[in-house]
Amino acid sequence: MAIQPIRLFGDPVLRTKAEPVVDFDKELRTLVKDLTETMIDAPGAGLAAPQIGVSLRVFTYYVDGELGHLVNPTLDLSEEQQDGDEGCLSLPGLAFDTRRAMRVVAKGQNEFGDPVIIEGSALLARCVQHETDHLDGVLFIDRLDREQRKLALRALREAEWAGAPAPPVKESPHATHGLAF
């Protein structure tokens, strides 16, 4: 287990759709542990594998005292919506009011390949949607209205970390079919 550097806005891995996990092996369990340790150290409510440079469909979360992870998620979203501040470890220091579904039912697998269902509302629903977006190369700023997005992009250009060099690329131990680092 090791705390990994978190990729920042501008790193191409954050805009790349992650590959499904097909090997539920020791390397995947190490990835889940690294994600969990990095998320807790940051600290954050969630962390997706692309945020540490691994283009696989895995994320961890820690919301309201509940710690978990999900592999290969699919989401069923409520029609009821919520608005609330949202930030991202890959866009440090920024938070904007973002609209999300109020409730989510997320289906996927755990690190051993067993089926998992996560049902949540409010903050857990927001977190699961945010992290699943990361797996599709979508950032929360992509969900902002035009005016808020302009403000977010301005804040990104002015951020003290803007233009920082990307951390070294770590090769994924999993078959990525040429779509991951």
From TrEMBL:
Pfam families: Pep_deformylase. Its EC number is 3.5.1.88. Fe cation binds at C88, H130, H134. Its cofactor is Fe(2+). Binds 1 Fe(2+) ion. CDD domains: Pep_deformylase. Gene3D superfamilies: Peptide deformylase. Keywords: Hydrolase, Iron, Metal-binding, Protein biosynthesis. The keyword Metal-binding applies. The active site is at E131. It catalyses: N-terminal N-formyl-L-methionyl-[peptide] + H2O = N-terminal L-methionyl-[peptide] + formate. It is an enzyme of class 3 (hydrolase). One of its GO terms (molecular function) is peptide deformylase activity. Transmembrane segments: none annotated. The keyword Transmembrane does not apply. It comes from the Bacteria. Belongs to the polypeptide deformylase family. Removes the formyl group from the N-terminal Met of newly synthesized proteins. Requires at least a dipeptide for an efficient rate of reaction. N-terminal L-methionine is a prerequisite for activity but the enzyme has broad specificity at other positions. This is Peptide deformylase. The gene is def.
